[in-house]
Automatic annotation (TrEMBL):
<feature type="domain" description="ArsA/GET3 Anion-transporting ATPase-like">
    <location>
        <begin position="16"/>
        <end position="287"/>
    </location>
</feature>
<dbReference type="InterPro" id="IPR016300">
    <property type="entry name" value="ATPase_ArsA/GET3"/>
</dbReference>
<protein>
    <submittedName>
        <fullName>ATPase</fullName>
    </submittedName>
</protein>
<dbReference type="GO" id="GO:0005524">
    <property type="term" value="F:ATP binding"/>
</dbReference>
<dbReference type="GO" id="GO:0016887">
    <property type="term" value="F:ATP hydrolysis activity"/>
</dbReference>
<dbReference type="Pfam" id="PF02374">
    <property type="entry name" value="ArsA_ATPase"/>
</dbReference>
<dbReference type="InterPro" id="IPR027417">
    <property type="entry name" value="P-loop_NTPase"/>
</dbReference>
<dbReference type="InterPro" id="IPR025723">
    <property type="entry name" value="ArsA/GET3_ATPase-like"/>
</dbReference>
Length: 374
């Protein structure tokens, strides 16, 4: 039998330092992360919510004009939590720049920041956003300022790609192609021909023709400047990865009661198990419970009878609405049953749909109450 996810127990645990909300796009991860962060702050935790989602929904719901790459405390009239709530939105380029400035010497840092190749990869290189999310999480955890960090992951299936990002970026930036392209500046002229041979020289000439000699020169200069901080780059990534696997971290998978979203939830659950990441449970957003025990078939039959007699058209409409709601509820139960059959040990909590979009703290509190059955 599936057990219920106890969100209050999760956030009240003083040993819980990081909660990561993950799931496919459009299932309410950002709202869930904000609601958990708000509830934790009001229950005494000093909390920061880190969103990777570029949408501005989190800032609006928290009563802030905008979020930046540094935590901003939520100070809204009438909001006096027992703890503290701050929020921020990942700025991928700014985080990369800050990392370079912090871990390279001044001369090297300026060389990297001014390099056109760096300017390209810091905003568009595959895995950069996910790696920078890891970097920012590591920074927040290392500062020791907050009791609890709530992470809202990217709105796509790549939400767990940040688990792979450090290795992928390390492999790419330390790979044979990059090193080969940087070889001309490293060895120069005839030295290069001796080291890599005529075949590689021909390869480099062809690549230079395709992508341009200036790009190769920029790549070469970038790799050399980046070398001085590359070891620290990988070391910090490993440290953050270990943080995600520690007892002080829990993952909350978020889904809606739809086939695609639950398939993605299964993928996340299985992936977390493979990576030995601690899973707290599954949040099913926008469920449709019914308030009456009247079955859908009996409601439809009663509506038909009223229609036949030409009586109480409003009551008949309400009965048909109830029958439709029961059908939706039953469909959602069947879908969830498939998930729980495949993952019987995963704790689950359902969050009933709100009548309108959440746009303020009161709405987030309501979500928090529904998360905990309050």
């Amino acid at each position: 039998m599936t057990t219920t996810l106890d969100v209050d127990r999760l956030i009240d645990n003083p040993g819980m330092r990081v909660i990561v909300c993950c799931g496919s796009g459009g299932v309410g991860k950002t709202t869930t992360a904000a609601a958990i962060g708000l509830r934790a702050a009001e229950r005494g935790r000093k909390t920061v919510v880190l969103t990777i989602d570029p949408a501005r929904r989190l800032a609006q719901a928290l009563g802030l004009r905008e979020l930046s790459n540094t935590p901003r405390e939520v100070e809204v009239e009438g909001f006096e939590p027992a703890g503290q709530l701050s929020a921020m939105m990942l700025d991928m380029r700014r985080t990369f720049d800050d990392m370079v400035l912090a871990h390279a010497g001044e001369k090297r840092a300026q060389e990297v920041l001014a390099n056109p190749f760096y300017k390209t990869i810091s905003t568009s290189f595959s895995g950069t956003q996910e790696y920078m999310a890891m970097e920012k999480l590591g920074q927040l955890a290392g500062e020791g300022t907050w009791d609890l960090i709530v992470v809202d992951t990217p709105p796509s299936r790549s939400a767990l790609d940040f688990l792979d990002a450090p290795q992928r970026m390390s492999t790419a930036l330390d790979g044979r192609i990059i090193r080969m392209l940087s070889a001309p500046a490293r060895t120069g002229g005839w030295g290069l021909r001796k080291v890599v041979g005529a075949g590689v020289m021909m390869f480099a000439k062809v690549v230079s023709t395709i992508v341009g000699g200036q790009l190769l020169a920029d790549a070469s200069a970038f790799v050399q400047a980046f070398d001085s901080m590359f070891g620290g780059f990988k070391q910090r990534a490993r440290k953050t990865y270990e943080l995600l696997r520690s007892e002080g971290t829990s993952f909350v998978v978020v889904a809606s009661p739809e086939p695609d979203a639950l398939r993605e939830a299964s993928y996340f659950v299985e992936r977390l198990a493979t990576e030995q990441m601690p899973l707290a449970g599954l949040v099913i957003n926008r469920t449709h419970p019914v308030l009456s025990g009247l079955s859908g078939s009996r409601a439809s039959a009663a509506a038909d009878k009223l229609d036949e007699n030409g009586e109480a058209p409003l009551a008949a409409a309400v009965l048909r609405l109830h029958a439709d709601r029961v059908a939706v509820r039953d469909r959602e139960r069947r879908l969830l049953a498939r998930f729980t059959k495949a993952h019987p040990s995963v704790k689950v909590v359902g969050v009933p749909a709100m009548p309108a979009d959440v746009h303020d703290l009161d709405g987030l509190r309501t979500i928090g109450d529904r998360l905990t059955g309050s």
